[in-house]
């Protein structure tokens, strides 16, 4: 009886055995035990498995490559026209990646070449405006949310003033001052009026973050304001700002195309999808491809950035997982 009892009762684990079991990955019943992932590594882990993110990332990578290295896709000039031979010529769908693949416009210019070279203006405006509004709007929102009081009151009134200006109408008024409108002038005009949304999001996120225990602990330990903002507040308040900025990037590209369509955006000879849509509107019945192809490019680009923003939002928001 004593032999049976001794055989069925396991010996108690020593403290060293417990420590080894807890420290060894993969030895527990709950699976591998290791260092817990941070918010960003956990978000990246989810993004890599999200088909929406993968599809949008592939599209955006292709668009960025087109805008930086258009010569990889075509050697044809987007400005050279041949009215005698290519006036409103229909697309030759069997001639892949050739100048006649997507047809020609009313000036005998290759639509495929203009689509490739037009990506640079649209993507540059979208990225530049996003960086500018994220920096300035984020800075204003962070100062207003962290300091509060009269600083918040003044900055909030300035924010409300700019928010009351219609975005496209205000951009039209600003751009109408310039005789020649380059990519950077259009980007500055859109950033001048488009920073309010980022500022509001940053302000609300900073107000929530500054009430956290780690921020209060840093203040109690005598950390300076600059250190608290850069080391504690900003890294933990930036997630919603990234989401809003990513989604807004597509909106800025659409705004540039809208202004160019109205004739108040980027000036020739710069190639722009919005200008091509404007030029093709008069040929909708005779040659609809002149209008539809650049319009589809604008829609696909805007959709790609909106899809990316949705995927990032789902990855960074624990409530949506």
Summarize the structure in words.
The protein is mainly alpha-helical and 321 residues long. The chain has a single domain (52-64, 96-320), classed as Orthogonal Bundle (MetI-like fold). 67% of the residues lie in helices and 0% in strands. The chain contains 15 helices and no strands. Helix 3 packs across helix 15 and helix 11 (213-220) packs antiparallel against helix 12 (225-237). The longest helix is centred in the middle third of the chain and has 37 residues, at 111-147. The chain is elongated, with a radius of gyration of 28 Å. The protein starts with a helix and ends in a 5-residue tail after the last helix. Residues 1-33 have low confidence and may be disordered.
Question: Which secondary structure elements does this structure contain, and how are they paired or packed?
Answer:
Elements (H helix, E strand, L loop, with lengths): L1 H7 L6 H9 L15 H9 L3 H18 L14 H4 L24 H37 L1 H15 L3 H9 L7 H12 L1 H14 L3 H8 L4 H13 L1 H23 L11 H8 L8 H28 L5
Helix pairs in contact: 3-15, 4-6, 4-15, 6-7, 6-9, 6-10, 6-13, 7-10, 8-9, 10-12, 10-13, 11-12, 13-14, 13-15, 14-15
Pfam family, one: OppC_N
Protein name: ABC transporter permease
Membrane topology: Multi-pass membrane protein
């Amino acid at each position: 009886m004593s032999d049976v009892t001794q055989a069925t009762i396991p010996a108690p684990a020593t403290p060293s055995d417990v420590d080894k079991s807890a420290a060894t990955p993969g030895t527990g019943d709950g699976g591998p035990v290791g260092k817990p992932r941070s918010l960003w590594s956990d978000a990246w882990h989810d993004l890599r498995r999200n088909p929406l993110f993968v599809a949008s990332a592939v599209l955006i990578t292709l668009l960025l490559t087109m805008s930086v290295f258009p010569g990889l896709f075509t050697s044809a000039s987007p400005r050279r026209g041949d009215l005698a031979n290519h006036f409103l010529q229909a697309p030759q769908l069997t001639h892949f990646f050739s100048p006649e693949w997507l047809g020609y416009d009313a000036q005998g210019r290759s639509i495929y070449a203009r689509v490739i070279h037009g990506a640079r203006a649209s993507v540059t405006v979208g990225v530049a405006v996003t960086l500018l509004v994220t920096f300035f709007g984020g800075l204003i929102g962070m100062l207003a949310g962290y300091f509060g009081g009269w600083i918040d009151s003044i900055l909030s009134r300035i924010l409300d003033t700019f928010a009351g200006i219609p975005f496209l109408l205000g951009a039209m008024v600003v751009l109408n001052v310039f005789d020649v409108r380059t990519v950077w002038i259009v980007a500055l005009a859109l950033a001048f009026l488009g920073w309010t949304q980022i500022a509001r999001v940053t302000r609300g996120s900073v107000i929530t973050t500054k009430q956290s225990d780690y921020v209060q602990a840093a203040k109690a330990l005598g950390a300076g304001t600059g250190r608290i903002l850069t080391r504690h507040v900003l890294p933990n308040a930036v997630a919603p700002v990234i989401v809003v900025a990513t989604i807004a990037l597509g909106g800025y590209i659409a705004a540039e195309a809208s202004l160019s369509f109205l004739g108040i955006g980027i000036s020739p000879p710069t190639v722009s999808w919005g200008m091509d849509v404007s030029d093709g509107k008069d040929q909708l019945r005779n040659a609809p491809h002149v209008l539809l192809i650049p319009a589809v490019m604008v829609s696909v680009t805007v959709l790609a950035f909106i899809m990316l923003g949705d995927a990032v939002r789902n990855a960074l928001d624990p409530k949506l997982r």
